[in-house]
Design goal:
Oligomer: single chain
Strand content: under 5%
Largest sheet: none
Mean pLDDT: 84
Number of domains: 2
Shape: globular
Order of helices and strands: HHHHHHHH
Helix content: over 70%
Low-confidence stretches: none
Length: 282
Amino acid sequence: MKSIGPVRKKIPKLPDVKKRAIKLSENVIKKTQKANRFFLAVGEINLFFWYTVKASFSRDFEFKEFLRQCYLVGNKTLPLITITGVVIGLVLTIQARPVLAEFGAVSLLPGMVALSIIREMGPVVTALICAGKIGSGMGAELGSMKVTEQIDAMEVSSTNPIRFLVVPRVMAATLMIPILVLYADALGILGSWAGANIKGEVNFVLFISQAFSAVGFMDLFPAVIKTFFFGAAIGFIGCYKGFTAGRGTESVGKAANESVVVASLLVILIDLVAVQITDMLL
């Protein structure tokens, strides 16, 4: 029998070992840099939030600028919210009526539509529209001011830009978005009544009484409370993205785009948390 010699492992050459070590170190450096950027972003957001809250309770509150921002927020989104609210009611009624008719429960249609609009559809859809319209507008406006160094000029002239630019916008969004949501809810119920009259004739007073008889205090109160958080999140993210925009002109569009994406994601997450809290209370 032939003797089998000892099995020798192939020892990698020195250049291969160096290449692997370099790749490993590069991967470690990249991951470390990503982690550093993440923690720096979290720290910047916390600082910006703290400065905004601190400036909100200062004595020199810009009330005129706050009223102007309230007007702009409502004026920009009112036509779109009007159309959206009516369409939501029409679509829900047209889609739900055949299903309820199969079970002979058409009389439950007003209450079902009112609950759907007041609890979820009205607040979430309105907040998402405001995130696209208001959030992008704030991000682009403050981003252009950052690029043209207007914010730096305010800091040089001893004017607090957060107090003058950020606080009125965040407060205006926090106040106006709940009002817009209630307006959209009312139009949604009116649109539902119009949809119910497409294939029949429904008395307006009877429809409204049936709709609101199914709505309780614990249906309306949590839905209104979470809209304040929607407004605060949309205003804060829009202002933060614009305030921290880069120096190039393309950073204005990037700030507006990121404002819409992040604000819409926050609206969905806040709604998820609000639904869980409401479910626990009920």
